[in-house]
Every structure is written in structure tokens, then in C-alpha cells.
Write a structure and sequence with these properties.
By secondary structure, this protein is of the alpha+beta class. Helix 1 (3-18) runs antiparallel to helix 2 (22-36). It has helices spanning 3-18, 22-36, 47-53, 60-72, 80-86, 93-101, 107-116, 123-130, 132-135, 141-158, 168-171, 189-197, 233-241, 244-256, 284-291, and strands at 139-140, 164-166, 176-177, 180-184, 202-208, 212-219, 221-229, 259-262, 265-270, 274-279. The strands form 3 sheets. It has a 5-stranded mixed beta sheet, sandwiched between helices. It has a 3-stranded antiparallel beta sheet with strand order 8-9-10. The protein contains 15 helices and 10 strands. The chain is globular. Helix content is 50%, strand content 17%.
Length: 301
């Protein structure tokens, strides 16, 4: 809804990061997140509504920039064309800075330099450039489920005892997802990828580690599949379901209960700071019970 405004604040954050101004980078990043969670479009009609709410992370300086955007469609110091590259697979702040010095600020210029042979891209960046438009399409629930079922076949083939779930916005019941986020219990990544790469829909691998695999898959168009191999299934299931806001609230509740919660498990805190024994979880609901709060269904997170 406010994707362009969010992109400008993310670009401001990237620029601050490149200038080693971590405080401003964090402030702009937080503003981008708050704006992304708004249930209405930011415009001249709703600007006073936004001002009156006094959202955390939207102080006077941020509000001035939002007002500038509403009036002009721009924010000084933000480069939405540069953000196009910042939003490309395999590209981070350091790469953006290097490309900027070479006069590369958009995909058209980048593709021209690649064709000329004057710049070399990593495998991930080549995929990101080639399939940029596809990778920024939203995926409906039917498509996410179809892809997940195909990957599930490989998981069960490697280890029929593995647990498997679709996480992210899909598990929260949202109508669309950015990519296909999956979680499996302990399984050998190399064995799993032997099966995945043999499938006709497999396009290419972006990264592979013992706990995370990211690859591209073609189902009508090219999309990204992200598989987490969880060391603590229920903690990871909860964390990667989201939302970010819910995760933060639950971690705060855990700390108040003398515990520390992360994707890697629920731990006892000693003296309020030192991590002690790990608690064996028997279900996702068990996390909430041990913290001492009511269980919240994924659709309500």
C-alpha cells in the first residue's frame, strides 16, 4: 500500500549505513517498518491522522520527510532508482556503493555493463538481474501450496520422519506471499538438494548451508524457495511464522518471565542475562505456556 514510501526510507537507511551512521540507519529502517504496517495509504488526506497517532519510530524528523513525500512525491537524499538495485537478490550495501562509483544506478545500466563484460556478477546477482520482475511478484496461496507439496515429496524421500511446514505469511493466513518459506526438522541439506535439483522445475541455487537453503523454482514464473533446517523445530516454527511485531512482543514476554526465546530455542536466563539450560519444547503451544501467556493462533499474529 505504501511500498514506494517504504522503499525511500529503506534507501535512506542504506545510505546512512554506507556512511557508517548506524543510528540514522536504524531510525530510517524502523520508520520503513512502521509505515509498512499501516492499514491506510499515506497521502494529503491521511497525513494528519498519521501525525495524531504518534507511532513509535515516527518522530518529528521522520514526519518532516513523510510530509515532504506527500507534497512532492520525493524525499531529499533518497534514490528510488538505486533502491531497485538494493532490492535485487545478492546485492548488499557494499556492492551498491561500489556500483554507484561506477555510475551504475539501475538495472538497465547494470545489464549493459554485464553485456559489455566490464563488470562480473555473482551467480545470485545474475539470477536476481535476470528474474527481477518474476521475483517481485506476489504468490497466491494456491501457488505456494503447490510448490511446497513438490518440495515436501523430496523431504519425505530423504527422511520420512521429518516434520515439515509452510511458514511466513502463508501460515498467518494472508492471501499472498513474497516467496515460499518452508521449515523442516533435521535433515541433510546435500541429500535434500540432490532430489530438488533433479526436478524439472528447479532453476538454480542461490545459497546452501547446513541450516538454510535458498533456490529458484519455476511454476508459471520464477520464484524463490527458502528452506530452514531447524535445530529446534517448534521455536523456529514460531519465529519464522512471524509477524515481526509478534516475535518482538513474545521475546519481551519471555524475558520478563526469566527466559530467552529465539529461533534456536527457549532458554532459562540466570541473573536476567546469562543464558542457561535449554528447555525441551513439545509443541509450539508449549512456548506460550512456559512463558505464561495465552497461545495466539498464527492468523492473529
Amino acid at each position: 500500500m505504501n511500498s514506494h514510501l517504504v522503499s525511500l526510507f529503506k534507501n535512506l537507511s542504506d545510505n546512512a549505513y554506507l556512511n557508517k551512521d548506524m543510528y540514522r540507519a536504524a531510525a530510517f529502517d524502523k520508520a520503513a517498518y512502521v509505515i509498512s504496517q499501516l492499514k491506510y495509504a499515506v497521502n494529503k488526506t491521511t497525513l494528519n491522522r498519521l501525525k495524531s497517532k504518534k507511532h513509535p519510530g515516527i518522530g518529528d524528523g521522520i514526519m518532516d520527510r513523510i510530509e515532504e513525500y506527500v507534497l512532492t512525491g520525493k524525499i531529499a537524499g533518497a534514490n528510488p532508482i538505486g533502491f531497485e538495485l538494493a532490492d535485487m537478490t545478492g546485492v548488499g550495501p557494499a556492492t551498491l556503493a561500489a556500483w554507484s562509483k561506477l555510475g551504475i544506478h539501475n538495472r538497465t545500466t547494470l545489464q549493459k555493463r554485464v553485456d559489455e563484460g566490464s563488470i562480473k556478477l555473482t551467480t545470485s546477482q545474475l539470477f536476481g538481474l535476470k528474474y527481477y520482475d518474476d521475483l517481485h511478484k506476489r504468490l497466491d496461496r494456491t501457488l505456494v501450496k503447490k510448490v511446497a507439496d513438490e518440495i515436501r515429496e523430496c523431504v519425505m524421500k530423504v527422511d520420512s520422519q521429518s516434520s515439515f511446514d509452510i511458514v511466513g505469511s502463508y501460515r498467518r493466513g494472508l492471501p499472498t506471499s513474497g516467496d515460499v518459506d518452508l521449515i523442516v526438522s533435521q535433515i541433510d541439506a546435500d541429500d535434500l538438494m540432490k532430489c530438488v535439483t533433479a526436478k524439472a522445475n528447479f532453476v538454480g541455487e542461490l545459497s546452501r548451508g547446513s541450516s538454510r537453503i535458498i533456490f529458484l523454482w519455476r511454476e508459471g514464473h520464477v520464484l524463490q524457495v527458502d528452506i530452514l533446517i531447524a535445530s529446534d523445530y517448534y521455536a523456529a516454527l514460531n519465529y519464522f511464522t512471524g509477524s515481526d511485531k509478534h516475535n518482538i512482543e513474545l521475546r519481551i514476554a519471555a524475558k520478563l518471565a526469566g527466559l530467552r526465546l529465539s529461533q534456536n530455542g527457549l532458554f532459562v536466563l540466570h541473573d536476567g542475562k546469562n543464558v542457561g539450560d535449554k528447555i525441551i519444547l513439545t509443541s509450539e503451544e508449549d512456548i506460550y505456556r512456559r512463558i505464561g501467556v495465552d497461545y495466539i493462533e498464527p492468523k492473529d499474529r
